[in-house]
Amino acid sequence: MSASPVRKQIVAMGGGSFSVEPEGSALDAYVLGLTGKPRPKICFVPTASGDSPEYTTKFYDAFARRAEATHLHLFGRPRTDIAGLLASQDIIYVGGGNTANMLAVWRVHGVDRMMRDAWERGVILTGVSAGMICWFECGVTDSFGPLAALRDGLGLLSGSGCPHYDGEKDRRPTYQRLVRGGFPAGYAADDGAALHFVGADLVACVASRPTAGGYRVRAESEAVTETPLSVRLLD
């Protein structure tokens, strides 16, 4: 009997999660539930925050009781078994911060390739803000100061991604201006919303609060079309 195909999954969060919802994030619970395991293995990668100790502590506070939690720091002297660590997880959780800096550090250590390898093995990739943008080809980032285009994402998901769509007043107009000017079409997610992809296909948009949404954003002629996605509100 042939083996079932690997289910390659990415859950891209626009904002929210454990760092701002210390009492328990419904988005985080959704990702944990995708594994079907009572205590899944989850690795936190906070490169975008410069491996912030406070951020890492919040991760353990949120996950240590319900998962087999670990982390990967790349600043200082990094560990030598990074590829094995990432490939052995059920979930890799990428934190927010400076996306451009994070991608540069990942590429120095080969973590960009390791992320792809883990995804192709069936490890669920997830994250918030920088941890949303990085999976796409392009994104809207404040890595350079003012909001601007980032064009060197990992490209596991085609097109572009924009987090914090309702959480930062300039995100929506900046993304729409970029798309109108020829930026690849893509997806936007409000704070508290997440986009669940299996392979290249969007299979769900879930939200932890009633007003959070996800959107398909594309240019048609001279106009930008923003199509709201069907959203499932999580308990």
Based on the model shown, name its key terms.
single chain; alpha/beta; 235 residues; 6-stranded mixed beta sheet; globular; 14 strands; Rossmann fold; 8-stranded mixed beta sheet; 7 helices
Q: Helix tally?
A: 7
CATH superfamily: Class I glutamine amidotransferase (GATase) domain
Q: How far is it from the N-terminal to the C-terminal residue, by CA?
A: 38 Å
Percent helix, as a range, is 25-40%
What is the CATH C level class, in words? Alpha Beta
Q: Residue ranges: pLDDT <50 for 5 or more in a row?
A: none
Got a strand count?
A: 14
Query: What's the average pLDDT?
Result: 95
- Choose one word for the global shape: globular
Say what the CATH topology is: Rossmann fold
Structure, explained:
The protein has one domain (9-233): Rossmann fold (3-Layer(aba) Sandwich). Helices cover 26% and strands 30% of the residues. It has helices at residues 26-34, 53-63, 82-87, 99-109, 111-121, 130-133, 171-180, and strands at residues 9-13, 41-45, 68-71, 91-94, 124-128, 136-141, 148-150, 157-162, 186-189, 193-198, 201-207, 214-220, 223-228, 232-233.
In short:
With 235 residues, the protein is of the alpha/beta class. The chain has helices spanning 26-34, 53-63, 82-87, 99-109, 111-121, 130-133, 171-180; strands at residues 9-13, 41-45, 68-71, 91-94, 124-128, 136-141, 148-150, 157-162, 186-189, 193-198, 201-207, 214-220, 223-228, 232-233. The N and C termini lie far apart (38 Å).
